[in-house]
Each structure stands twice: as structure tokens, then as C-alpha cells.
User: What shape does this take?
Amino acid sequence: MARATAALVALFLIAFPPLPRAQDNAPPYTLLSREGRRPIPTMTRGGRELIALDDVAALFQVTVRGDSLARAVTLTYRGKTIIASADQPMTSVDGRVVALPGPVVQAGQRWLVPIEFLSRALGPIYDQRITIRPSARLVIVGDLRVPHVSARIDMAGPPTHATFLVTPASRVTATTEGNRVLLRVEGDAIEPTFPPSAAGLIESIHLGDQPDTVVVSLTRAAAPARVATSQADNATRVTVDIPAAPDARPPSSQAQAPGVPGQDTPASVPALGQAMQTIIIDPGHGGDDIGVKGAGGLQEKQLTLDVARRVRSLIESRLGLRVIMTREDDKLVTLNERAAMANNSKAGLLVSLHANGAPSATPSGAEIFYDRLDREGEAARRAAAAQSVSLPVIGGGTRPIEIIPWDLAQAPHVGSSEVLATVLEEELRKVVPMSTRARQQAPMRLLSAANMPAALVEMAYLTNGPQEMQAGTEGFKNGVAQAIVNAITRFRSLTDDRETR
Amino acid sequence: MTRGPIIAAAVIGAILIALLVWGVPAFLSKKTESTPVSAAAATSSPDTPHITATLYYASSDGRYLVPVKHDVPLASGVVEQGRQILLTELQAAPSPYIKVIPEGTTLRGFYVTDRGDAFVDLGPEIVRAHPGGSLNELLTVYALVNAVTANLPAVQRVQILVNGKEVDAIAGHVDIRRPLTRDASLVRERDTNQAPKLKAQKPVQ
Assistant: This one.
């Protein structure tokens, strides 16, 4: 009897396989058209976002006909057809083969396709343009104007200072409504990049009820804000200055002016709250210094710059932080110049990107380095710590300044650099193969001169054939970039926790 | 009458000198032949005196540094012996190990200070011909540092110079602006039979 029940259940499962469940954590996609906004139901399978073709049929007025025997599905729109086969990462669009980022999935009677199907396959035969903005979770149908608005809190203050950058340049009207500043950006919608957490007198930055409005909510301690707009480089810059209300006591943790640590804070330790607003990404090598070159021709200097650009765009769009790259293009930058750029920007952390090389083809996997001081370095650090000098500060009084030689700037940060290396290792381990020595401590020239938590990531061994092939793929570069951004996010939250403790 | 003893003394003296001139090298060469020869190919000819030094090469899988016993010509004094050790380290690696110093790298000089810091001055080839990568660079740097410190007890730290100058790094990663101490973290004593016996051989002081 039990066997018969089990067989029946198995038969049922074969006939009606369980559907992938809708994704819980990622926000849903929204379809944006002249007619308005509609949610697009998506689900994830194997880390890829899929949309059901029957939902596509309803949203885009196309007809879908599945053929279970042939394991193929036909989608028709105004006499043109798209044919897709189960498990194939491609479709035939009006006779032309179009690649998809993942395979077409047949789940019982339903057909699921990667969300990119909309722009890549349906787009070419549709009568309106279809574009996808993954970071804004938008599928845009037609020529709509969706400017990108990035927000950044430059200074927690008070006074609190925030900058909004609108690209392409658009007309922005600012109004004050009680304890809120509303920025109306001309366009059909907004692609936002807002910082995950607010600071100072700003309680939150979020999209308004209207799709073209940004709302800046202020705390009760805020006085009316001053808003100024300017145009430059096809972008509109909106600066919002919020002074403290005269009778309100400023929040105690933010009482200091930025960049001026308290009396007991050594000058060499950046005040995390402000400093973590800037991240240094160092693409290793460049110009005549190509770094490692794989047998297949992949050059380390190209890979590091490519991944660095991806990391920058993710940080700017997801975290809303300022990113400084030690080189923007293929040029030679000395290690000293790189360290100087990092230290002069008072950045919160530095991640140096590299690709590894070994004397044989065997070693493979990613490795993360943080700096190791030799005995002389330790001694020099102790001697330097004993030689603090007092400098006068604005407003009277003096402040002790710890003098640490430029080339030993990393000394006070080795502990936090180890934490950074650890979270980098943990995040990278989720997406790429790791070396048997995944985290190492060694005397590294650039790291030793960085006056901030710093780590060096060797993404893969280019001297290993399969690794070189893998490192050149979009999946690898995006995966590494995302892992680094995840690690930075985790590291920031760890240091924030420490600060508040 | 007094000429007889003088002639006899001269003859005996000549015989003694001849014995010394012929005999000492012969004795030394016998001594060196009896020294156990390692798996490594001897670089010195069998009749020149040599020591057995510990040199460092990459393991055949390229992951680690392996200490390998190797014949090195005997030299007088720490500095000259250090030079000989480095010249051998710059040559090809014995099978199955892999050389970690770029091909064609020249030794411009070797100095030791009273504080026990040694300076290894290499030609610009070490930078120009270096294949790059943190692992390759760590192997290069510590093969040199370990080879010098393992064989010369008088040396505690080693600073690498390129073309007579202090440099940041050989390939952009490892800090060589200051003298470095021996690092065992990259070393794997793969074959225990070939592990160095540092205390047993102290040819140079």
C-alpha cells in the first residue's frame, strides 16, 4: 500500500513538477510604459531570474504555444515568431539565433525564460523599445525618460551636506514640505542609487509616491535646508545643505566637524563615519607593466582594470559611495603614487586587484593578502608612537598627532586589514575557486603604505590554463566584482558596529 | 767544510716545499671527494674544494620553496662565500625543482654590514624578466633571502638591491625597501632526506 502511494506521488511529481518559488529577497521588477507601472512576477532558479512566458503573453499581448512533445515553445507577435527549446540558452527570433544568459526552463505546462529574454528576444520584434535596468529593477517599454539619480551624504555634520547627481542632465525642482525636501526630476521615472543608510540630519532618502520624485526626510534637529542646482558634463548636480536647528542639540556622535577626530583619537586612524564614504580600488599594474600574462594572452593589467570598473559601478550604484580608482586607464602608476592617492583622499579602505602567477601551471584559486610588518617595522611603529607631537587646533587647545613614517602607515590598521581580508575570502569563496592558501600575510609594498584597512586580492592564477579561460568570462568578472562589493558592505557594517559599541 | 750541511738543509727544504705544494691540494681534493654529494648536480669541478649549501627552488608543483642541498665552491670569508652561494642559486635548478630567479639575472655585488644585514645587488634583469604575480615574486624574494640566511650564520637579514639601488618591489607586490628576515611560511621540506642540516655544516664564519 505504502509502495503504491509512493509510486502515485512519484507519478504526480513527474506529471506536475513543483514550480520554482517566487524570489523572496530581491525586489520585484516593474514594467514601466506610457500606460503606467505594472509589477512583473519573476522567480529565481540557479541564481538566475526567470519570467514565465504566460506572464509575458499577458503583459505584452503576444501568443504563446508550447509543444510538450517537441519540448519547444513558440511565441508570436504581429506575424513574427520566437522559437525556444527547453534547456537551450538561446532562441530563434524571426529566424535569427539570439543568445540568452541562461537556458529556457520547462516546468510542467509552464515555460520560464531569463528576464533578459524581454530585451534580447522580444525587443527586436516588438513595436516599441524594451530595455532592462537591473539595478533599478525596471523593464522600460518605449522611449521613456528615466534619469539616473545617485545620492551621497558628503558630510554627516551637522551641518549635513548631501549631493544628488542626475544623469543625463534634467530639470530638477526642489520644494520643502514640513520636515521633507522633495526633488522632482523631469522624466517618466527615476533610476535611483541611494545610500543604504542615512547620516547626520538626514533620516532617509527614498523615492516618493510619484515616480519622478526623490524624498529627503530630515530629523527633528534639522533647520530648513538650502538647495542649489548646477549643470556640468551632461549631469545636474543638486546640493542640499541642512543646518542644525538653533535650539536643537546635535546628536552627540556627530558633534564634531568632519575630519577632525576627538582629542583622544590618533590622527592616523580615520574617523570611520566619514572616511568610509570613499573607497579606493587599485587596479594592479598598467602601461608597460602588464603583470602576469596567461598562455592564452589574457593580461593581468587588463583584467584588473576591467574588474575594478565593475566594482566601482556596483559600489556607486548600490552603496552610493565615492570610489577612487588609482588608474582609470592603461597607464603606469607607481606604487608610491597609488599609496598617495589613497592616503590623500582619506578613504575608508583600499582593495588592490591582481591576478597571480606561479612557476608551474598547477597552482590555482584566489588568494587574499594583508600586510605583515617585519620586526623593524614593529620597532619603528613603537618608536613613532612615542614621538607624538601636539599641534594647535582651530578654536584653541592642542591635539596630539602621532607621527608614523609614510612607508609604515599600515601599522595601526593591520588588525582591521585582517578582518577585511577575512570577509573578502568568505565572499569570494562563494563565487570563485580559492587557493589552498586563501588568506596570507606578507610584506606587501602598496598595503604597507596605506593609512587605512587594506587588502590585495589575487583573483585567479593566469598561469593555470583553465583559470585563465575562466578569468576572461563575464561571469567570473561580475562574480568577483559582486563578491568584493559584498565584502565591503559587510566590512562597513562591522566597523560601524564597533564604532557604536 | 761548512758547505755540506747547508746543501743538505737546502735539499731538505726544497723537498718539503715540493711536498707542500703538491700534497695539500691533493689532500684537500681527497677530502672533498669524501663529502656526500647531494642529488643536485655539482657546479664545481670535482677537484676544487666546495661546501654543501642549502639552496631554495620551487617545488615541482610550483607552490612552495624547497630546500635543496647543492655543492657550492668554497670561498674565503663570509662575503666571498655568500657571493658563491648566490651565483649557484642564480643557475638552473636541479630536477625536479623549478628555478624562481628569472633567467639571465646577474649578481652585481654582495655585501654584509657589521649588524648582520646582507645586501644582494642584482642586475636589472630580475625586474625585466620577472614573470609577475604575488606567488612568483614571493618565491623569488624568499629564495634569495633564505639561501643567504640559511648558509651564512653571520647574516640575519637580507636586502635586495636592483642595479645598485633600493627599489620598491621586483614585480609590484613584495616590499623589498628594507632588509627581510628568513620566512619559513613558504617552505616545505618535501624530501626529509634532503632537508638541510644547518648546524652540521658551518664552513664559514
In short: The longest strand of chain A covers residues 434-442.
